[in-house]
Amino acid sequence: MPNAIASIALLVWPLVTLALFVRLSPERALLASLIGGYLLLPPMPAEFDLPLLPSLNKSTIPSLSVLAAAVMLGRLRVMQLVPRHPLMLIALAVYLLSPLMTVLGNDDALRYGPRLVPGLRLAEVPGLVIVQFLLVVPLLMARVFLGRGEDHRLLLWAILLGGLAYTLPILIEVRLSPQLNIWTYGYFQHSFSQMIRGDGFRPIVFLYHGLWVAFYVAMAVLAATGLARAARGREAVALWGAAAGLGVVLVLCKSLAALLYTMVLAPVLALAPRRLQLFGAAAMALLALGYPLLKGADLVPQEQILAFAESIHPDRAQSVGFRFDNEDMLLERVWERPVFGWGIWGRNQIYDAESGRELSVTDGRWLVVIGIFGWAGFLAEFGLLAGPVLLLWWRGRDAALDAASVTLAVILGMNLVDMLPNATLTPLTFLAAGALLGRVEALSVRNRRALAPAHPPIRTVL
């Protein structure tokens, strides 16, 4: 069970956030609070569970804190949070309102032998909507505060510095086994057996799973690579060194997927033209959006992917095959209530009709969302995340985009692809999407001004 330090850390974080907004610029305070909270606060099950309200935990407290601090100090007006782009505004509206439709369509209880899965009640709607809103707050605030090219560079630096700060804790856990969360907060947040790889350990530090740690390090490597390519002199040398050092740390994290992403994308960021990088980011975003359709139409090359996994290790092939089988089963379940899904309390899962035993495992974020909130919820959430990358590619074809914006788009594209096998939706995902959306809206305003007809000179009569 979480100890008193875990509770104190969660309680104190709003005060830390307020102090950051008092002392720093809104951009720096936003990044310090959200990224710092993600890396340092205790993960679930540390929480404050209030009746009829969403859980206050590592995910929701930083979002609520930055919003409250910015509004209280006059740094933000609530109406500034509303996106100007019509497609993104529609996606946001569906994202926030789809829980209501999900609840209305799932008031029936489900029975599987001795197991009874309850129906949803209207009283649960406010909590679900608040959770959705708090999840998307980083996107909405990043759109306001991080929409410029220099802000994107600041975000990349924040990711990089977070990765460097995490290096020592990672190395400690690689050497001694994952113990830091136990030593600090009094509990282990996941299955310890999943942190064992070969004759060593996956570090987990204060995140939900070792895969999350590896993925964050991969983001830091790409951030360092993008910054290094644009830098000059000693700064460039230091950044290339940071990228190389973090690459070694990534290998020690023992995550094949994160390592493969980095091996492919780091050379792209180091060598390829920006327009090609942006095209690659858009392709990854489009893949994430279209994967359920490809999966349903049997267009995913599963046999080739399994053969590749088998060439690496039989255990990898078994893991990938297990995921594919679960995706097939759960997609069939989705099509029974396709528009707004099955709702919470495990209603989207598959159970044995006689024993009530749960038969399915939901890994990918896309599968979680489409099962709970249906196609409406999936298109809304992934539209909010993938939309800025696609819009930036579309708007940026005729604009001079700086390296930081393109690097951020590539990192977000990688995150979207990783949400197919894993549930690596983090505050950084929303931060990156919001920052890119702010840039897209700025480009739209600039394009409209450039296309506006010049006013004719005023005629004077003497």
TrEMBL record:
Keyword Metal-binding assigned: no
Transmembrane regions: 55-74, 86-105, 125-142, 154-172, 205-225, 237-264, 276-294, 366-393
Record key words, sorted: Membrane, Transmembrane, Transmembrane helix
Protein name, per record: O-antigen polymerase
UniProt source species: Limimaricola cinnabarinus
Phylogenetic placement of the source organism: Bacteria, Pseudomonadati, Pseudomonadota, Alphaproteobacteria, Rhodobacterales
